[in-house]
Amino acid sequence: MLADHRIAPIIVVFVANGSKRMQELAANPDFADFVADELMPWVRQRYAVTSSPTKTAIGGSSHGALMGTFVALRYPQLFGNVISQSASHWWGPDGEDGEWLARTVATIGKLPVRFYMEVGVYETDRSADQGPGQVWPNRHFRDVLRAKGYDVDYREFAGAHEYLNWRGTISDALMHFFPSRSH
């Protein structure tokens, strides 16, 4: 994409997760604080990156997309763009109904954050321990964001909840937020 001048030069930082994935990525304030207070300062000390939130994105897939959205809403002064691939917007904290983040967004003021959201049209059923499908909660979250006046680029692709799909569609999100100056 860089060689074809389809995106501007960017630096991408990936955060690996392991056995605590569901705990760390379920709208966890401690993990969000780690990203804001430790990871971003570490990146800025080592690389020539912008401090402008309008030129900085955070994202992920599934629970990672839920967490990326949560981090951007908690720290809009750091992240002005969210790449959300098949976010687990069905999630809710223990003892609460699902779609917690949609309810949260509905009750707070609009923040300076833009969204690129996508979900596969075959992400309709999940096992009992993983929550309901992704399609309906993502559509609902999109609708809540738009009702609040957020800039949302929403897409559905012909696929399921799989890395195979996301690896192909991430380029669309990157071109959306980081277009090449020569195009």
Structural notes for this entry:
The protein is an alpha/beta fold. It has a domain at 55-177: Rossmann fold, CATH 3.40.50. It is built from six helices and four strands. The chain has helices spanning 21-24, 29-46, 63-74, 100-107, 135-147, 163-177; strands at 57-61, 81-85, 114-120, 152-157. It has a four-stranded parallel sheet with strand order 1-2-3-4, with helices on both faces.
Q: Look up the CATH topology of the domain at 55-177.
A: Rossmann fold
Summed over residues and divided by their number, the pLDDT gives a mean of 90
Tally of separate helices = 6
Beta-strand content: 5-15%
> CATH homologous superfamily of the domain at 55-177, by name?
Alpha/Beta hydrolase fold, catalytic domain
| Strand line-up across the major sheet | 1-2-3-4
Summarize the structure.
With 183 residues, the protein is of the alpha/beta class. 38% of the residues lie in helices and 13% in strands. α2 crosses α3 (63-74) and α4 (100-107) packs parallel to α5 (135-147).
Strand and helix layout:
Elements lengths: L20 H4 L4 H18 L10 E5 L1 H12 L6 E5 L14 H8 L6 E7 L14 H13 L4 E6 L5 H15 L6
Parallel strand pairs: 1-2, 2-3, 3-4
Helix pairs in contact: 2-3, 4-5
